[in-house]
Specification:
single chain; about 190 residues; mainly alpha; 10 helices; globular
Length: about 190
């Protein structure tokens, strides 16, 4: 995959997010930057990770928000309007334990049947790591600080608050696994 898919992903994400949602675009750019930094642990899937990181929040774009659940809206857009690679679409659909949030929204069956989770744990974990160690403004943070920020922004009793509390142990475990992979890399 490599450079071409990364360039295409950046063009699509910028077109959909930069003007309509500049803060979301800043977050997206930070997540993509983090993906470049961790891509060495993925070998041939490095470009796929960067593309998924770049497109993970494209479903927030107002014109794409049909279900108002951004992982599903983004994946449908990438599949239907762009004929995007199936693995890429499934990564976007399921990023950062989206299945748990889909359950909170009554969309679990739709998400799971339309976009099954990839059975590629390191790739899935790497996208979680990139998303959950990036602030809304694109800066670096810890997963713990990011979860706390999300809870503070949405509130404990919101759909997102309930989801993030349920997902937090899985998020922290995924981030830990990626950090272990990174630490094992030769310097």
């Amino acid at each position: 995959m490599g450079d071409l898919i990364e360039e295409w992903a950046a063009q699509v994400a910028e077109a959909e997010l930069s003007s309509a949602l500049p803060r979301r675009w800043a977050h997206t750019q930070g997540v993509a930057k983090r993906a470049v930094e961790v891509s060495q642990v993925l070998g041939q899937d490095a470009g796929l990770l960067v593309a998924a990181a770049t497109l993970h929040d494209v479903g927030y774009a107002p014109r794409l928000a049909t279900t108002r659940f951004h992982p599903l809206d983004g994946a449908q857009f990438l599949r239907d309007e762009h004929g995007a690679d199936e693995r890429l679409v499934r990564l976007v659909a399921n990023h950062s334990f989206a299945l748990l949030e889909a359950e909170e929204r009554g969309l679990r069956e739709e998400l799971a049947s339309e976009f099954p989770l990839l059975e590629e744990p390191l790739l899935v974990d790497a996208l979680v790591y990139c998303d959950m160690t990036t602030t809304p403004d694109g800066g670096r943070t810890t997963a713990e600080e990011r979860v706390a920020e999300i809870l503070g922004r949405y509130g404990d009793d919101s759909v997102v608050g309930r989801f993030i509390r349920r997902a937090a142990p899985e998020i922290f475990a995924a981030v830990g696994r990626v950090e272990a992979e990174l630490a094992a890399q030769p310097r």
